[in-house]
Protein: Isoprenylcysteine carboxyl methyltransferase
Organism: Ureibacillus yapensis
Amino acid sequence: MMFFLLFVSIVMLQRIREVAIAKKNEKRMLAAGAYEAGASHYPVMIALHVAFFISLIAEVMLFERPISPWFLWLFMLFLLVQGLRVWCLASLGPFWNTKIIILPGANVVKKGPYKIIRHPNYFVVCTEILLLPLMFQAYFTAIVFTILNFAMLAVRIPTEEKALEEATNYRMQFKKGKTSDIVE
């Protein structure tokens, strides 16, 4: 149990650090004339992520879930996903945020993982919401929060893309067939 608590604590500290980076980027972007889109669903998204960690901890602790026999493989995949997370943050730089912050007239990001897939940061989050519980055999949390996260992204991604189409060069890039060139 101690290993699990340490592991989850490190992941939660990483998320808290990312929120601090997002706040710093948000202030800078708003000062440059940016605005927030999708503010109404943001508290629901935050609640979903907090509930995910509560559910994970509760399921593992209350039901005394052991480490998965596939832990090493799942952990290696988790580390690869963390590398992709860092690549996303580095590629977006000051545009990276947990909120949908749009800078009118900005060019969409066309580097890093954004050349390969449209929303690599969302891919990272989806993968983590599945991997973390599977590493500790918390199957209820894995299933429920994977479904809830997909429902959240069904709202968030269209909101983000609409805002990008209205205020950036996204539409021009999209018409060229470069669907991977989206600022997140």
